[in-house]
Amino acid sequence: MVPPVIDAPATGRALTAHHPLGTSTGHLVELRGQWDMLVRRALDVSTLAVELAALSEPEFVSLCGWLEQNGDGLPFDFVSVHAPTKHRELPEQALVERLLELPASVDAIVLHPDAMEQPERYAALGAVAAVENMDARKPGGRTADELERIFAALPEAAFCLDVPHAQSVDPTLDEAHRLLDAYGERLRHVHLSSLDGGCHHVPLTRADEQAFAPVLRRCTDVPWILESALPAR
To answer: Which of 144, 220, 152 has the alpha carbon at shortest distance from 189?
Structure first.
C-alpha cells in the first residue's frame, strides 16, 4: 500500500496520495436518490472506494431497489452503505432485515449509535456492521467510553472513525487516539472532511489536513471516505 504523503506541506497530493481514497454520495444533494448518477460522480473521485449514503429511509428504500439490480456489478474495490438515520418508519427489526438483504458486494454498513433503539438487534449483521463515532451535538456515542456498550452488544461489529466528529468532541484529537486505542483492531474505514460551526461536513481545510495527520497515520490500511467535495488546491 502506498503511504499517504500527509507529512508534506498541505497540498492536494497530500490527501489524494492515500490509497484507497473514495467519496460518500451524501454530499451530492442535488442528485439525491439518482443512484446511477451518484455512482458516476463517485467514480470521478476514485474507483477504489465509495460510500452510498442513504441517510433518510426513503433514500434507503430506493437504494435497496437499485442495488438489487446493480449491486453485483459496482466498479469499486470497497463499498459501504450508510444506513438511514432520518425519517424512520420501519420497525427496527424490519430495518435490520432489509440491511441483511443487501448484496454481498457491500463490505460495510455504517450505523449511528444514537439511531439504534436496541443495539443487539444489529448483531445479526456481524462484521459488516460498522459503528461510527458521533459529533458533539449528539447525546452519546461520541467517545470510546460511550461506545463501549454498543460494541458489547455487537461483538463482531467493525468501527468507522469519523475524524472531524472526534475533533468536534475534543479539539486536541486525543479522543480520536483513544477511539483507535480501544477499537483500532475493528477499524473498517475512515470518514474525512472538515466541519462548519453547525457540525455539517465541508471540504477538508489545509489546517485540518495537518491537524488530522497523526490520527490518519494510524489508519493507512483502510479506505478514507470523503464526506464532502474534494478540496480545491
So the answer is: 220
Decide: helix, strand or coil at residue 230: coil
Q: Which tens digits make up the pLDDT trace of 110-143?
A: 999 999 999 999 999 999 999 999 999 999 999 9
Q: How far apart are CA 192 and CA 22, in angstroms?
A: 10
Give the rounded distance of the alpha carbon of 224 from its chain centre: 8
The answer for residues whose C-beta is within 8 angstroms of residue 167's C-beta and 6 or more apart is: 173, 176, 195, 208, 211, 212
Domains of the chain, each with CATH number or no CATH: 15-224 (3.20.20.150)
Report the run of H or E that residue 21 belongs to, with start and end.
Answer: strand 21-24
Burial class of residue 117, CB neighbours in 10 A (0-12, 13-18, 19+): exposed
Residues 6+ away with beta carbon under 8 Å from 151:
131, 157, 159, 183, 186
- Tell me the pTM: 0.90
